[in-house]
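Example (one chain per record):
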Amino acid sequence: MPQGDKSSYTDKQKRQAEHIEEGYEKRGVSKEEAESRAWATVNKETGGGKKSGSGRGHKVSHASSRKGGRIGGSSQSHAQRSAAAKKGWETRRRKAG
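Predicted structure:
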């Protein structure tokens, strides 16, 4: 099977890759990069294409999909986060005393 041949993947895996690719493109990733990342994600989650033989299956992990949107840190700047913490501290101090 030549590299890049998707014939050994199930229909479900192909649909997953297509959906993941659309999500990357919506976030501004180029078409080629989105496709590459999508198939890498499918491979990581499902263990690659279908393989013949009894007992060859294994559990599917969606950890990489759940992690996707959370990478990149906070939307607040350091100064905003610090100011919010100081304000909360002052409020708690005032209400306690």
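Caption: The chain has a mean pLDDT of 85.
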